[in-house]
Every structure is written in C-alpha cells, then in structure tokens.
Design a protein that fits this description.
The chain has 164 residues and is mainly α. The chain has 8 helices and no strands. It is 73% helix and 0% strand.
Length: 164
Amino acid sequence: MEESFVQLIADGLVFPLVILAAATLLLYVPNRRKFSVYSRMLVAGLTSYLVAKLFSLLYQPSAQRPFELLGVEPGASYLDNPGFPSDHALFVWVIVFAIWYGTRKPWVVAVALIIALLVCVGRVLALVHTPLDIFGGVAAACIGALWYLDEKRAKSADLQKNDQ
C-alpha cells in the first residue's frame, strides 16, 4: 500500500499537473497574447532542458541511484542514467513557472506548486533521486524561467505591434 502511494505521488501526479496546466493556459491566456506567451514558454522550457543537460555533463555526484546503492527495488519509474538532475523535478517546475507566467492566477499556481512539491518528495521517497538531484532539476527550471522576467517589455512590444 505504501509503495503504491509513493509511486502515485512520484509518477502519477505529473498527469493531473499537465492537465491543469493545459486547461488553465488555454482558458486564461487571452487570445491576443497566446502566441507571445506560448512562444516564451517554449523557449523557457527548452532553455531549462538545455541547462539540465549541461548540469549533467559538468557534474554527476554518483553513477548509481539511491535504490541501486541500497540494493532495493525502485519505488517509481526512472531512466537508466545516474539521475542528476531530476527530469521529473525539471518538468513539473517548468510547468509551475509556465502557469505562473501565463495566468497569474494564485489559486492555480498554488495547486501546481503543491503538486510539484509532492512529486519531488515522492521521487526521493521512491529512492530514484537524492535531494541534490531534485535541487538540480529545480535550479535548471529556475534558470529557464528567467525568460519570464522581461514580461513588461514583451507586453509593450505586443501592444506596439497591434497599434501598427
């Protein structure tokens, strides 16, 4: 029972987060801004992924995952690699930042944030990642989210384009 709960939070919560993100980004991003917002989200996500891959090339704390070191079965799905940084953590935090940027709806961001935290905790409890692996994924997502900081200039460029 405990194992299936850990697997649910480590793997299963990713799907409701994706559905939440898709629904809110379709509903709450105004049509006139969709291309601009979605483009910036794509670039932020790709940047995060690139940063994560660079992190993994520059630093790999262990060649084995925690479950391998302990000689037990993994409690969740995983890719056959050393695990730094966590792709699951990267993915869920990229989604959280995209929801924040695209909607600015506090309740949606709060729900997404809770789900992302649970996924990250679940990955550690499932012994497929260390806290450092999780931190690496979150850090890569934060670096990609820097694309969202220039929003005022992007909005004014959109408005100028619409005036022409």
